Amino acid sequence: MLPADLRTAEAEALAAVQAALGAEARGLWTVELRFEGLRIAPVALRLLAALTPQRPDLRLLFPDAGATALAKRDAPDQAAQISGIGDLLRLQQADGGSEGPLILVAPTPADYDEVERLCAQHRGPVVMINGRLEDAAVGIGTVARERRKGFLSGWQSAYALIPTGDGALRRAYPDDWQLYRLDPDGYRYVTRFDSKPDGEQQLEALEAAHRG
Questions:
Q1: φ and ψ at 84, to 5 degrees?
Q2: I need a surface site. Which of 5, 57, 146, 193 has the fewest CB within 10 A?
C-alpha cells in the first residue's frame, strides 16, 4: 500500500533504513523519494534526528559547503553531526577512516569521485538519499560501464517511492519492489518484483494487468 503523505513515507523509510543498517555492517544503501519540488534537506535532518538515539555516531554529509552551513543553521542541536563530504574525507586521511553510519544527501555526478573515495575508506554503512551519481553524459562507453560494474552496482535499495508516468514504484527493505497503477480513483497495486524493474518490465506488467 502506498503511503498517504510525506510523513508516512518518512516513517516507512526510517523503518526500512533501521532494518537495512541492522542487516549489514558495511552496506551501501539508497533512499529515494523522487517527488518534484521536494526539499530533501529537511527530510534528511528528520531522519538524522530519528536515527540518532540508536546510532549516536551517525553523521549527515552534504556535497557542498553552502548546503552544510544551511543544515547546521536549521538544526543547531545536530550541528556536530553535520559536515561536508570533503570535510570527512580530510578526517579520514588523517585518522585512517571511521565506522559510524553515514547519510549522504543528494550527491550528483560531480561528486562521484569524492563519494567513491569516501565509501572505500569508510568502515561502516552508508545511506545515500536522493543521490544521482550516474552521469547521463557518460552513459555510453568504457567509463560508464566500469562505474556501473564496480561502485554503482554495490548499492542496494533500503527505501524507494518513485512516481512513474503510469503509477508508482515502492520498495521498503526487506520487502520486494511493488508496482502500482494510477487509476482515476487512485493508485492500485499491480505486482511485485525481486529487483527494481526497468521501464519495459513495468510496461509489460501494466499491460498484463489491463488484460486481466
A1: -90, 155
A2: 5
Sole residue written with cell 502500482: 180
CA dist 125 and 99 (Å) reads 8
**Alpha carbons 24 and 22: distance in angstroms, whole number:** 6
Q: What tens digit of pLDDT does each residue of 6-59 get? A: 999 999 999 999 999 998 878 999 999 998 899 999 999 999 999 999 999 999
DSSP SS3 for 184 = coil
pLDDT in tens, 170-201: 999 999 999 999 999 999 999 999 999 999 99
Burial of 61 (0-12, 13-18, 19+ CB in 10 A): buried
